């Protein structure tokens, strides 16, 4: 979801182009979004800063007419099991309950190797893959370091010896120079990169907006921001095509006692951003 500053910048540009001081230059603008999804990034910010970056905290919100889509299109042709899953997703996106039980149709896994080979079967064998094999599936995790670890392990499963080729060719097109905009250092660092990254696994935030047939979810590191669990589980429309590698133990505390729960995970929802 975009930072409110992006919409405000477009709004100012429209006023300039149309030479009209009224909001958005007096033209109709349609904005779409799901408030259950991940909110704008506020570098080094906490909950207050993240919520403040949301469009509803913009002065423009007073000029917005909010319309809600009421029909659940994904339920029209769904099986009873998937209807329950869709209802679970709606609750996961709006209920601030911090510990949730995952649907029973979602399979629990035990190791990272199981996580990889279940979604990329026979990855460790030299076989010909069908077109679109990789684009129909993905592994999601909350943190970049876990994603890198999973990608490395998947790469090491390939059969044969690894060979390193050294080259001095220069890539002329599609280079990207990255200069961090927020840093406490007294100087600027620029990194030039070619935009390709191994992606057997990706972070949950990166998957927002995508739809895949098969999802494997690494929840060893618990979600830490609004909408992450909702986004991760809603990339796939069927609970039977989702599997989870859970944290080894999740301890639930109550005023009188504590106990270990299975097939549960944490969920974070900021009620103040929901309509």
Automatic annotation (TrEMBL):
Cross-referenced InterPro entries: DNA_helicase_pif1-like_DEAD (IPR010285), P-loop_NTPase (IPR027417)
A Pfam family this chain is assigned to: PIF1
GO BP terms: DNA recombination; DNA repair; telomere maintenance
Cofactor: Mg(2+)
Keyword field: ATP-binding, DNA damage, DNA recombination, DNA repair, Helicase, Hydrolase, Nucleotide-binding
Enzymatic class: isomerase
Similarity field: Belongs to the helicase family.
Protein's name according to its UniProt entry: ATP-dependent DNA helicase
Organism: Kingdonia uniflora
């Amino acid at each position: 979801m975009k930072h409110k500053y992006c919409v405000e910048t477009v709004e100012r540009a429209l006023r300039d182009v149309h030479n009209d001081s009224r909001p958005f230059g007096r033209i109709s603008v349609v904005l779409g979004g799901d408030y259950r999804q991940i909110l704008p990034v506020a570098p080094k910010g906490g909950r207050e800063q993240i919520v403040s970056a949301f469009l509803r905290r913009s002065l423009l919100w007073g000029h917005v007419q909010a319309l809600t889509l009421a029909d659940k299109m994904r339920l029209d042709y769904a099986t009873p099991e998937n209807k329950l899953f869709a209802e679970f997703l709606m609750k996961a996106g709006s209920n601030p309950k911090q510990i949730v039980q995952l649907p029973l149709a979602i399979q629990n896994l035990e190791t990272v190797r199981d996580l990889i080979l279940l979604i990329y079967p026979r990855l460790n064998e030299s076989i010909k893959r069908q077109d679109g094999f990789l684009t129909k599936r993905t592994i999601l995790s909350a943190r970049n370091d876990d994603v890198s670890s999973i990608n490395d392990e998947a790469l090491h499963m390939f059969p044969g010896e690894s060979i390193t080729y050294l080259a001095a060719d220069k890539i002329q097109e599609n280079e990207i120079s990255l200069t961090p905009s927020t840093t406490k250092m007294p100087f600027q660092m620029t990194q030039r990169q070619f935009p390709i990254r191994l992606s057997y696994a990706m972070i949950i935030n990166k998957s927002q907006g995508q739809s895949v047939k098969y999802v494997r979810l690494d929840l060893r590191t618990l979600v830490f921001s609004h909408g992450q669990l909702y986004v991760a589980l809603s990339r796939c429309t069927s609970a039977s095509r989702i599997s989870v590698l859970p944290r080894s133990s999740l301890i639930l505390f109550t005023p009188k006692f504590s106990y270990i729960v299975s097939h549960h995970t944490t969920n974070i929802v900021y009620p103040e951003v929901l309509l």
